[in-house]
Amino acid sequence: MAARKPLIAGNWKMFGRAADLGEIAALNRAVGRASGTIDVLICPPAVYIPAAVAQAQGTSVLIGAEDCSPIAVDAARTGEVSAAMLADVGAKYVINGHSERRQNHKESDDLVRQKAEAAIASGLIPIVCVGETQAERAAGKVAEVVSSQVRASSPTQGGAFVVAYEPVWAIGGNSTPTLAEIGEVHALIRETLTGQFGASASEVRILYGGSVGPKNAGEIFTVPGVDGALVGRASLKASDFSAIILGHPAAA
Ligand code: PGA
């Protein structure tokens, strides 16, 4: 099996303005050669994607989206953006089923799977997010919740995809699971994917997300089975995000 190339993805959420897109060029300068051994991705709000793609032109920084419609073809879907449109303007990846969408927009596993399948059909690589709430962790249900989300949200029709393990309680806060806990859940996700997809599951990258920053990224990247990170707040500034990327063993 070829080694999985690490992926470090920034999720800008609903932050930033056109003026902040200069961070992409700054990021490219700061990470230098590391982007040859690590896939570096920025997912800005949809309206800024074309300008972000222009900023990233000629650099190795990849641009992605934070969400897409479950419908791959043109359709009467007011307010939605299709994966085909995202691909048309130069996006390469799309985040699907982030917990903020699962919570605020009541996105089900089934909808997340349809979005991921629309992404693949349009030539994008979906990053499917899963993760337990604080209450589910307290009730000892991490394995049950995460494996059932993986089984029901993963795209089934073939094509590359990524899974991001993001414990809901770790997002936007200051706490993360212990390194041992992160390792356990990543192993569980790998096992679940293997049960579902067989040998090809070894190609799926599994990221950790939730309060990753320059201080803790290095140790998280040493956890077996962690193929990179999905980063929120600390991806907004090139200084923080590049420190995370340069802290990966593959950047050396
Ligand atoms: P955070 O967000 O890094 O700000 O905790 C992570 C995410 O929501 O992907």
Q: Can you describe what's shown?
A:
With 252 residues, the protein is α/β, with parallel strands linked by helices. It has one domain (7-251): TIM Barrel (Alpha-Beta Barrel), CATH 3.20.20. 38% of the residues lie in helices and 15% in strands. The chain has an eight-stranded parallel beta barrel, surrounded by six helices. The longest helix is centred in the C-terminal third of the chain and has 19 residues, at 179-197. The model has no long low-confidence stretch (mean pLDDT 96). Bound molecules: 2-phosphoglycolic acid. 2-phosphoglycolic acid is lined by residues 11, 166, 171-172, 209-212, 230-234.
List strands and helices in order, with pairings.
Layout: E1 7-11, H1 22-31, H2 34-37, E2 39-43, H3 49-56, E3 61-65, H4 83-88, E4 93-96, H5 99-104, H6 109-121, E5 125-130, H7 134-138, H8 142-153, E6 162-165, H9 179-197, E7 205-209, H10 217-221, E8 228-231, H11 238-246
Parallel strand pairs: 1-2, 1-8, 2-3, 3-4, 4-5, 5-6, 6-7, 7-8
Essential attributes:
11 helices, 252 residues, alpha/beta, 8 strands
Which structural class best describes the helix and strand composition? alpha/beta
| Domain module tally | 1
Give the C-alpha Rg: 17 Å
Helix proportion: 25-40%
Counting DSSP H or I runs of 4 or more residues, the number of helices is 11
Quick synopsis:
The chain has 252 residues and is of the alpha/beta class. The chain has 11 helices and 8 strands.
